[in-house]
Amino acid sequence: YSYQLLWPANLSFIYPRWGLGSAWLFLFAGAVLGALIVLWGWRGRIGKGPFAAAAAFIVTLGPILGFMDSYAFQFSYVADHWQYLASLCLISLAAAIPSCFLPPRRRVLILGLPIVFLAFLTWRQCPIYQSVETLWRDTLAKNPECWLAHHNLGFCLLSQNRSSEAETHLRAALRLRPDYYEAENNLGHCLMTQNRLQEAGQHIDRSIALNPGYAASRWSKALLCERQGKKEEAYAIAQAGLDQPAVYLDGLNRFAWLLATAENSDIRDATSAERLARRGCELTHYANPYFLDTLAASCAAQGRYLEARQLATRALVIASGLENNELENEIASRIKLYESSEPYADRG
Q1: Which of 48, 113, 131, 200 sits CB 3.0–4.6 Å from 192 for a disulfide?
Q2: Closest by alpha carbon to 184, among 162, 199, 163?
Q3: What are the residue ranges spanned by the domains of the chain?
């Protein structure tokens, strides 16, 4: 942590997770203890400030140094943002040193140069955070074995309908962590978008086996059964999902959307889609643009185009307020269909 403060280059959102049995970890701990002893021994010459700053830095970092278990440790044992509070100790010490030994003009120069340098590093770091995709691609470039980055990048690509690329990263996540039930489910959904239903079912079933309580995989199973023509099983799973104290909204909307917009008449069921979409709207107090969009599509599928336009227009206003440009454009294109008395058919 202190090195990254001194030279904040090659930063990574998630650093590689090292093994706890490495001998150098114990040597490093000994070196830190030795440095504290030296600073305490020199307190008569240099004052207590350096020792106080170093000790405060270590104590403030204490909760994330591994003495207590943390959820984030499954990804990495270190993260730059964990030291924000602790860094004030060393930054204060570094800012105080020139004030003790230099006249005011030189002090401004000495303190100004690091600020300019840090500003340059910040400017160079900014493009990494341009989007979710750029963040996870940069993470993988620096930490190729990061299973979380592979999964999140795969999920991001899947949401952009780039299923082939998404599949590669989701499989990599499972190679690195075979019990990753979220990745199993999302890989199953990815394969469904490629119409590889049998293979998709294997991964969705594996996700359910790993975590029977994971709601997303249950709704994925409902989608799969519907696409396979197993309507009774699909509707039973959906009803079980609706009966839960906390309904998984994304799964509910995906299932209703499939029923409302499927090109295949054997799958399409606009009446059931409307019932499910209205349930979603009630749960979200008619403030969720995705459910409103699905409800509009289900009404249009039944020939009620005026109602569809009204619902879609409301969804458009909400999406615009959320600055969701992609959804906004999609809803606007569907409104044009409803104005022409045409339903929307999802060809994905």
Answers
A1: 200
A2: 199
A3: 2-127, 130-245, 247-348
User: Among candidates 151, 148, 132, 149, which has minimal Cα distance to 140?
Assistant: 149
CB 62 within 8 Å of CB 91? no
Instruction: Kindly report the pTM of this predicted structure.
Output: 0.81
Instruction: Check residue 286 and give left, alpha or beta (phi > 0: left; psi -120 to 50: alpha).
Output: left
The CATH class that applies to domain 130-245 reads mainly alpha
Residues 40-62 have a mean pLDDT of 85
Q: Does this chain's domain 130-245 share its CATH topology with 247-348?
A: yes
According to DSSP, residue 262 is labeled B
pLDDT tens string 264-286: 888 999 999 999 999 999 999 99
Three-state SS string over 63-111 comes to HHCCCCCCHHHHCCCCCHHHHHHHHHHHHHHHHHHHHHHCCHHHHHHHH
Contact residues for 178 (Cβ-Cβ < 8 A; gap 6+): none
Question: Higher pLDDT residue, 261 or 90?
Answer: 261
Angle between helices 215-227 and 197-210 (to 10 degrees): 160
For the ranges 116-130, 205-219, 271-285, which has the lowest average pLDDT?
Answer: 116-130
Query: Domain 247-348 class?
Result: mainly alpha
